[in-house]
C-alpha cells in the first residue's frame, strides 16, 4: 500500500509537471514568442560580447519595450537577453583575452590560450556547447524540482551564506597557480582592493581619500578588463613592433587545420558541462552569489576531476566547458527565488521583478496557482533559449573567426577603443577608464613579479560577500561567534572546508614526480 | 487577416530589437517649438540601470517628449549612494540639456548624512516632484503581532530588543524605523538594524526569521504581502494605498510624523534660465496627468505625487531638516 501511495505521489508530481509543460507549450509556441527568444539571445550575445556593455544594461534597455508586449513574450525576451549575454561574454574572452562580462573571466584562462594556438574555432564551439548543455541541465532540474529549490533560499541565512563563501574561497584557491604563497599574496591584495569604497554593512567610507569616485569602490568590469586585456594588448603591441612581427594571432589562426570541435573532445568534456550546470543551479538559487563564482567553482571542480589537470590554464577544452557551463547554469536557477518568493538574486532578476509587476503578476506561491501556464510557458522559453543559443552562437562564431584573420595590428587597437568606450559607459564616468588603465599597468607588474591574477580576481568578487556574511551574522547574534556552530548547514560547509584544505596541502606536499605540471 | 496579424508582431519584435540598439532614444514628435529645447535632453539617473529610480526615469522619459517636444535620454551615473550623479548634474552647465532625476537618497539623505559632500541639498533647481514611494512596516505572517498596536506595545515593553532588516545603512529603510522609535518616545537602542543590500534581501531575512521586522519599499514587499507570507502593520503614506486597503497608515495610528515616503522628481543645476524652468514645469505638470504615465508608475510600485516647484522646494527643505535631526540623534551624521 505504502509503495503504491509513493508511486501515486510520484506520478502525480511528475504528471502535474508534464501537464503544466503541455499547457505552457500551448501558450509559448507562437511566432512572436519565438522571435522574442531568438532576437533576445542575439541582442544578449552582442551586449555580452562587447566588453563593458553589461548584462544589466542590456536587460534594462530592453525592458521598456516589453511594456506593450504580452506578458509571456516580454518575460521570454528578457530571459533570452540574459541567457544570450552570459554566453556572449565568452566570445571576446576567447578571442581577445577580454572578458565581455565578469562571468566570462574564468573562460579567458583557457580560451585565449587556445586562440593563441590557432584553435579559436574549437574554443568558441566548446564554449557554445557548454553554455547550452550547462543551461539545459540546470533548466531541466529547475523544472523538475522548482518547489524544492525555492526552499533552499530560505535555509541560507547569513551564517550559512558565510560558511558557503569560506568553502568556495578555499576550493577555488586551487586555481592559485604554482606557488601557494604567491597565490595567497594575490588573494589578499584582491581582498584589500575590494574594501575600497563604502563599507557594505555600515556605509562608512573606506580608503576613499575624500573622492566620491573612490567612495563608490572599483567597478568590477574595468578592473577585469585592465587585468586581463590591457597587458595582452601591450604584449601584442611590443611584439608587433619587433622585426619578426609575423607572430600575430591572425597568422597562427589561419594556419590551424585542427580548428573544429571533435565528438571525442565534446564527449570528454560532457560530464564537466553537466556538473557545471548543477553547480550553477545551486549557486543561482541562493540570492546574491551570481554567475562569476559559479564559473570558477565549476572550473576548479573540473580540474580536480580531469585526467589532464596540467592542461588547465594552458588551453584546456575541459576548462572552457566547465567555466561556461557553470556560469550559464545560474540563469534558470535565479528564477526560483524570484518567482516563488519575489526575491531577486541579482540586478538582472531585479529588473525582471519590475517587469512582472508591470504585467500585474505578483510573484509568490499563488503565481503557480493563478498563472501556472505562464510559468511553464517561461520554462518552455528557457528550453528554446538553448536551441537559440546554438543557432545564434554559430553565426557569432563565424563572424568571430573572420575577426581573428584580421591582423592583430588592426584588431587590438580597435578592441582597446571598445574597452575604453565600454568601461566609460558602465557608469558614464571617466574615472572607470582610469581604473581600467591603472589595473592594466598593475596587471603588467603582477605578471613581472609572477603574482597570479586569478586569485586576485576571485578574492575581489568573494571578499565583500565574505565580509557581509560574517558581519551580519555577528550583528544578529549580538557578537556571539557561536552562531556559526548552531547551524548544521554551516557546520557542514566548515567540515568540507577543512577537508578541502587537507586535500590541497596533501597534493602540494606529494612527491614532485606525481604532480609535475 | 492572418498575414496582417503576423506582420504586426514581426514589426513589433523587429521594432523592439531595433530600438534596443538605439539606446532608448525615444521618438521625437516633429513639432515646431520655441528656442528651448532644440536638441535631446540628458536625464541623469544617479543610480544603476534597473533600479526603482531608473525605471521611474525611463517611464517619465517615455511620456515627456510628447509635452517637451524633444527626446529625453536616460543616462545612468551611479556611485556613492547617488552622490556621483547628483554632483555631476550640479556642476554641469545650466542650459537645460542636463537634468537630474531626483530621489530622496541622492538629494536629501546623502547630504544629510555626510556634511562634507561637495554639494548640498539646496544646490539644485527643483522643478517638480512626480511621484512618491510608499513604505510599509512588515512582520512575518506567523508573528504574534496582529496589528500595529500589538507591535507598538511590544516595542514599549520592558527590555524590548528587536532586530530589523534594512536595504542599506542610512537609507529610508534604516531611518524610518528610527523615526518610529523616536515618536514612540523610545531610545534607538530598542531596535538593532541589520543592513542588507536591497529590500528584497531584507525581505528574505525576515522570511528566514533572521530579523523581526522591516520597513521598506511597498513594491518590493507587495508580492509577499499578497501571498500572505508577511503581514503589513502600517503604511507611511498620508492615505491608504489602493490594493492594500487593509493596512492602516501611520497617521491613522496616531503617528503622523512617521509618514516618511521616498520621492522622485526632476531638478536641474542651479541657475536654469526662465524659459527652461517654464518648459519643464509645464511638461511635468502635463506628463503627470497622462493616463499612460499614471498606470506605468502605479505598476512600478510608486504613487503619482505631483508637486509643483512652489511646494516642492519647502518639502525638500523640511525633509532634509528632519533627516539631519534624526541622523544626529543616532550618530550617523559624520
Structure write-up:
- The complex is a heterodimer of chains A (517) and B (334).
- With 517 residues, chain A is mainly alpha-helical.
- Helix content of chain A is 76%, strand content 1%.
- Chain A contains 22 helices and two strands.
- Chain A has helices at 2-28, 31-49, 55-66, 71-96, 105-116, 120-155, 158-172, 180-194, 212-215, 220-241, 249-255, 263-285, 291-305, 317-333, 335-341, 347-358, 365-370, 372-405, 408-427, 431-448, 453-476, 488-509; strands at 197-198, 205-206.
- A two-stranded antiparallel sheet of chain A has the order 1-2.
- In chain A, a hairpin with a 6-residue loop joins strand 1 and strand 2.
- Chain A is globular.
- Chain B is of the alpha/beta class and 334 residues long.
- Chain B has two domains: 33-133 and 261-329, D-Maltodextrin-Binding Protein, domain 2 (3-Layer(aba) Sandwich), CATH 3.40.190.150; 135-258, D-Maltodextrin-Binding Protein, domain 2, CATH 3.40.190.10.
- Chain B has twelve helices and eleven strands.
- Chain B has helices spanning 2-21, 52-63, 65-68, 83-91, 104-113, 148-156, 172-183, 199-208, 218-227, 274-287, 291-299, 309-329; strands at 41-45, 72-76, 98-103, 125-133, 135-140, 162-166, 191-195, 213-217, 230-235, 262-268, 303-308.
- In chain B, the strands form two sheets. Chain B has a six-stranded mixed β-sheet with strand order 2-1-3-10-4-11, with helices on both faces. In chain B, strands 7-6-8-5-9 form a five-stranded mixed β-sheet, sandwiched between helices.
- Chain B starts with a helix and ends in a 5-residue tail after the last helix.
Spans where pLDDT lies below 50 across 5 or more residues of chain A = 243-256
Quote the distance from N terminus to C terminus of chain A.
58 Å
CATH topology of the largest domain in chain B: D-Maltodextrin-Binding Protein, domain 2
Find the structural class of chain A using helix and strand composition: mainly alpha
The succession of helices and strands of chain B, N to C, reads: HEHHEHEHEEHEHEHEHEEHHEH
List unreliable stretches of 5+ residues of chain B.
1-33
In what range is the share of β-strand residues of chain A? under 5%
Major sheet size, sense and barrel closure of chain B: 6 strands, mixed
Total DSSP helices of chain A:
22
Structural class of chain B: alpha/beta
Shape of chain A: globular
Helix content of chain A: over 70%
Kindly report the spatial arrangement of strands forming the biggest sheet of chain B.
2-1-3-10-4-11
Strand order of the largest sheet of chain A: 1-2
Amino acid at each position: 500500500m505504502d509503495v503504491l501511495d509513493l508511486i501515486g505521489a510520484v506520478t502525480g508530481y511528475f504528471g502535474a509537471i508534464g501537464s503544466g509543460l503541455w499547457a505552457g507549450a500551448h501558450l509559448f509556441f507562437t511566432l512572436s514568442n519565438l522571435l522574442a527568444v531568438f532576437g533576445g539571445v542575439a541582442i544578449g550575445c552582442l551586449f555580452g560580447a562587447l566588453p563593458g556593455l553589461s548584462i544589466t544594461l542590456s536587460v534594462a534597455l530592453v525592458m521598456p519595450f516589453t511594456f506593450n508586449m504580452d506578458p509571456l513574450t516580454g518575460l521570454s525576451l528578457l530571459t533570452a537577453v540574459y541567457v544570450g549575454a552570459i554566453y556572449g561574454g565568452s566570445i571576446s574572452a576567447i578571442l581577445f583575452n577580454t572578458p565581455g562580462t565578469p562571468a566570462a573571466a574564468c573562460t579567458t584562462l583557457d580560451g585565449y590560450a587556445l586562440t593563441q594556438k590557432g584553435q579559436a574555432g574549437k574554443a568558441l564551439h566548446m564554449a557554445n556547447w557548454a553554455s547550452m548543455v550547462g543551461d539545459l541541465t540546470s533548466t531541466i532540474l529547475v523544472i523538475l524540482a522548482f518547489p524544492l529549490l525555492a526552499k533552499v533560499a530560505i535555509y541560507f541565512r547569513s551564517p550559512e551564506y558565510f560558511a558557503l563563501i569560506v568553502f568556495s574561497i578555499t576550493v577555488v584557491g586551487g586555481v592559485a597557480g604554482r606557488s601557494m604563497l604567491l597565490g595567497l599574496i594575490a588573494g589578499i591584495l584582491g581582498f584589500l582592493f575590494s574594501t575600497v569604497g563604502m563599507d557594505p554593512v555600515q556605509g562608512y567610507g573606506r580608503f576613499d581619500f575624500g573622492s566620491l569616485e573612490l567612495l563608490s569602490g572599483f567597478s568590477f568590469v574595468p578592473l577585469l578588463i585592465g587585468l586581463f586585456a590591457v597587458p595582452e594588448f601591450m604584449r601584442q603591441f611590443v611584439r608587433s613592433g619587433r622585426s619578426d612581427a609575423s607572430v600575430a594571432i591572425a597568422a597562427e589562426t589561419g594556419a590551424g587545420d585542427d580548428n573544429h570541435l571533435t565528438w571525442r573532445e565534446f564527449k570528454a568534456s560532457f560530464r564537466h558541462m553537466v556538473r557545471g550546470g548543477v553547480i550553477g543551479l545551486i549557486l543561482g538559487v541562493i540570492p546574491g552569489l551570481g554567475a562569476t563564482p559559479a564559473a570558477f567553482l565549476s572550473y576548479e571542480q573540473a580540474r580536480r576531476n580531469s585526467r589532464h589537470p596540467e592542461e588547465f590554464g594552458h588551453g584546456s577544452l575541459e576548462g572552457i566547458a566547465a567555466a561556461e557551463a557553470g556560469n550559464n547554469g545560474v540563469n534558470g536557477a535565479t528564477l526560483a527565488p524570484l518567482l516563488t518568493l519575489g526575491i531577486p538574486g541579482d540586478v538582472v532578476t531585479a529588473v525582471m521583478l519590475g517587469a512582472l509587476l508591470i504585467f500585474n503578476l505578483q510573484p509568490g506561491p499563488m503565481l503557480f496557482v493563478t498563472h501556472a501556464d505562464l510559468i511553464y510557458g517561461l520554462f518552455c522559453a528557457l528550453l528554446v533559449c538553448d536551441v537559440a543559443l546554438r543557432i545564434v552562437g554559430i553565426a557569432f562564431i563565424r563572424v568571430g573567426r573572420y575577426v581573428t584573420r584580421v591582423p592583430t595590428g588592426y584588431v587590438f587597437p580597435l578592441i582597446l577603443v571598445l574597452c575604453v568606450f565600454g568601461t566609460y559607459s558602465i557608469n558614464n564616468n571617466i574615472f572607470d577608464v582610469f581604473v581600467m588603465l591603472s589595473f592594466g599597468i598593475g596587471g603588467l607588474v603582477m605578471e613581472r613579479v609572477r603574482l597570479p591574477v586569478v586569485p586576485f580576481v576571485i578574492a575581489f568578487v568573494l571578499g565583500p560577500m565574505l565580509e557581509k556574511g560574517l558581519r551580519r551574522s555577528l550583528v544578529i547574534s549580538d557578537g556571539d561567534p557561536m552562531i556559526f556552530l548552531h547551524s548544521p548547514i554551516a557546520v557542514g560547509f566548515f567540515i568540507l572546508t577543512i577537508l578541502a584544505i587537507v586535500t590541497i596541502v596533501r597534493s602540494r606536499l606529494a612527491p614532485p614526480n606525481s604532480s609535475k605540471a | 487577416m492572418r498575414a496582417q496579424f503576423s506582420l504586426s508582431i514581426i514589426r513589433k519584435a523587429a521594432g523592439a530589437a531595433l530600438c534596443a540598439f538605439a539606446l532608448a532614444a525615444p521618438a521625437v514628435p516633429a513639432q515646431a517649438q520655441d528656442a528651448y529645447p532644440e536638441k535631446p535632453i540628458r536625464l541623469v539617473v544617479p543610480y544603476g540601470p534597473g533600479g526603482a529610480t531608473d525605471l521611474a526615469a525611463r517611464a517619465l522619459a517615455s511620456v515627456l517628449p510628447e509635452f517637451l517636444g524633444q527626446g529625453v535620454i536616460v543616462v545612468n551615473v551611479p556611485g556613492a549612494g547617488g552622490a556621483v550623479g547628483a554632483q555631476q548634474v550640479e556642476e554641469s552647465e545650466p542650459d537645460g540639456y542636463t537634468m537630474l532625476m531626483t530621489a530622496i537618497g541622492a538629494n536629501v539623505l546623502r547630504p544629510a548624512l555626510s556634511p562634507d559632500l561637495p554639494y548640498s541639498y539646496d544646490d539644485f533647481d527643483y522643478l517638480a516632484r512626480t511621484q512618491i514611494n510608499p513604505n510599509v512596516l512588515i512582520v512575518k505572517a506567523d508573528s504574534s503581532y496582529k496589528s500595529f498596536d500589538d507591535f507598538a506595545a511590544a516595542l514599549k515593553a520592558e527590555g524590548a530588543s528587536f532586530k530589523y532588516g534594512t536595504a542599506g545603512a542610512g537609507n529610508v529603510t534604516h531611518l524610518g524605523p528610527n523615526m518610529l522609535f523616536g515618536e514612540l518616545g523610545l531610545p534607538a537602542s530598542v531596535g538593532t538594524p541589520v543592513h542588507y543590500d536591497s529590500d528584497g534581501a531584507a525581505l528574505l531575512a525576515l522570511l528566514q526569521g533572521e530579523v523581526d521586522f522591516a520597513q521598506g519599499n511597498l513594491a518590493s514587499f507587495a508580492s509577499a504581502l499578497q501571498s500572505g507570507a508577511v503581514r503589513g502593520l502600517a503604511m507611511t503614506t498620508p492615505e491608504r494605498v489602493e490594493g492594500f486597503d487593509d493596512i492602516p497608515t501611520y497617521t491613522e495610528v496616531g503617528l503622523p510624523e512617521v509618514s516618511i515616503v521616498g520621492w522622485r522628481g526632476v531638478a536641474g543645476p542651479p541657475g536654469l534660465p526662465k524659459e527652461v524652468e517654464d518648459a519643464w514645469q509645464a511638461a511635468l505638470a502635463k506628463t503627470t496627468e497622462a493616463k499612460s504615465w499614471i498606470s506605468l508608475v502605479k505598476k512600478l510600485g510608486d504613487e503619482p505625487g505631483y508637486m509643483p516647484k512652489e511646494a516642492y522646494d519647502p518639502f525638500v527643505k523640511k525633509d532634509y531638516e528632519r533627516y539631519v535631526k534624526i541622523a544626529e540623534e543616532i550618530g550617523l551624521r559624520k
